[in-house]
UniProtKB/TrEMBL annotation:
Taxonomic source organism: Paenibacillus baekrokdamisoli
GO molecular function, one term: oxidoreductase activity
UniProtKB keywords: Oxidoreductase
Homology family: Belongs to the nitroreductase family.
Protein name: Putative NAD(P)H nitroreductase YodC
Amino acid sequence: MSQPTIIPVLSAEEFIKTRHSVRNFKRDVTIPADTLNEILELASAAPSAWNLQHWRFLVIQEQAQKDLVKGIAYGQQQVSDASVVVVVLGDLQANLTGHQIYNQAVDAGELAPEVRDTLLGQIDGAYKFEQVARDEALKNAGLASMQLMLAAKAKGYDSVPMGGYDKDRLIEALKIPARYLPVMIIPIGEAASPGRATGRITLEQSVIKESF
């Protein structure tokens, strides 16, 4: 099994500029377990509202499982060929994670109990609204998704974000609990052919200063 070509050290700016979506991966390339863990740890360092870390990474490496997801993704070959397929999930009950995180902070002497209680009251109050939970799950899992792709690039691997799949079939096939919402599928691996840069609108079109 081949390993990716060692890439030169690049700046963060160069990683951002050279990351392009790849849809043609080399088959039978294995990402070493320690490298994959480093990629996932870097992605997990993404920011999140209230530090609730709304994302979960469902990691698929077995070929039969990748082929299963390929069918759910309307036959897109990159799902089958990639080394790893990461299904990024958003947590609709991230407030429960908040209790864990803030209790740990209190136990470590990093947070006063009364501050914890105030924060958890705000969080639990917000999560009474389903739309808030859904919006936060999508928004914050999206932040982790971008960081995942940049982390993969930093380790010499390419990726592609995918929204084209049957969400209900994915949930059923992978036994995804109701707590989690599929946000996107990200195949990661070694490019068989490079991704291409795509056209961008100008800053004059995309940047609005102060107000419309």
